[in-house]
Specification:
Blueprint lengths: L2 H10 L27 H6 L36 H8 L1 H6 L3 H6 L2 E3 L2 E3 L2 H7 L42 H15 L5 H8 L8 H8 L7 H22 L9 H10 L13 H17 L14 H9 L16 H20 L10 H17 L1 H9 L5 H9 L8 H13 L3 H16 L1 H6 L3 H8 L9 H18 L3 H4 L2
Antiparallel strand pairs: 1-2
Amino acid sequence: MTTDNKIQFWKRNTKVPGRFLKDGPKTNALSIKSKKASSFHEFARSTSDAWDIGDDEDDDFLGGPTLPSLPPPPPPSAHISSKVAVTATNPAPQFHGWGREKLKTDCYQSNGRVVKSQSEAQLSTATEGPPVRNTLHKQQSLPLRPIIPLIARISDQNASGAPPMTVREKSRLEKFRQLLASPNTDLEELRKHSWSGIPREVRPITWRLLSGYLPANMERRELVLRRKREEYFGFIQQYYDSRNDEHHRDTYRQIHIDIPRTNPLIPLFQQASVQEVFERILFIWAIRHPASGYVQGINDLVTPFFVVFLSEFVEEDVENFDVSALPLDTQRNIEADSFWCMSKLLDGIQDNYTFAQPGIQIKVKALEELVSRIDEDVHNHFSKYEVEYLQFAFRWMNNLLMRELPLRCTIRLWDTYQAEAEGFSHFHLYVCAAFLIKWRKEILSMVDFQGLLMLLQNLPTIHWGNEEVGLLLAEAYRLKYMFADAPNHYRR
């Protein structure tokens, strides 16, 4: 799609949800020099995966035995090529290591001390000498930009270091409070205002309403909350003791293994009490949804709800807060609300997690068709170097881009998803397309299969904030407006 078309689009359509800022300084493109891999299998065998942790529950997280290499791919199926087969059958363990966490969890020596991330090494050696390069990620240093908390006060933060609360933000907060204080909240009006982001102070109650967990009628809310929370803990009493039964043992064991892998660098999620909460939520959901059961990736979907509902009771730094310091009733309420809101989300995308995950495969195919229409150069570049969309976009659909973006950005993104009709199931496709085209310059600069895969699974969004997410959503809205109801343009 040409620049002229974009300009004409925004001139024609002035009434567009959200506030779209001018594009800021561009992040330097990654310069990855690597030997060309003749196949995805050779590429996979030549690398180690930081997320392929042994299934032994007694192994130390991040400190266990030597990490195993990827298993050889299974024989190609009738519909999926041999390159994609290993990804589609068990995507999470293979690709976790190439996601955002890989960049952050690699440990190496920097001037005699152990450094846990490349960014940390660059900062620590800025005045002590040239930074030590990680041999796996041969790339230029990311530009130094203001360090943004991972999740604390994210609604007041953006990558350009804007003031915490502008006059406009105060006005928006007051508008939200007026809507929420009415006897019957106008949900359409609430969605309209939420599209461009929800103020932190009112995000918990707004998310409960937009997800369908709470009724619009204010008088009924307290009764519904009490009933649903009691119902959830009734499930705990009824089902949780069965986690060690033979029929459910494998499900619980996989959940128990995956929980420490959820945001491993955020102290909040490494607390034993928080991990127990996540285990209960995921196990109960799996028991009540036998058509899909637990699938790797669902564990990530709990975290935004948990953080948002926790922020209702925490003024300071959320990511380092000791949840056990809260009253027990408050902890229980946060857990129950997180369960029900996650369940509401998954109700709309459950075909993503049923056998063979058909929903994801359909969405990945739709993404391929869409990109072939909006940027033929990128699409042909993938074809030239035999990169298949399933190899990188499976995780984008399975984890709703949570492995590609900082958690603060995910929460801001979900403000819009909750406000948009079919945000998680339909609008997400256009967000993924906009996200891919955002990196077209870097993509076209890669001239081998291995370099493209490493770029696509390690995109430099560590410094992203509200401004970047807003621009991404604006482009996604434009794509949806132009293609969603135009099948003749959507397909060849």
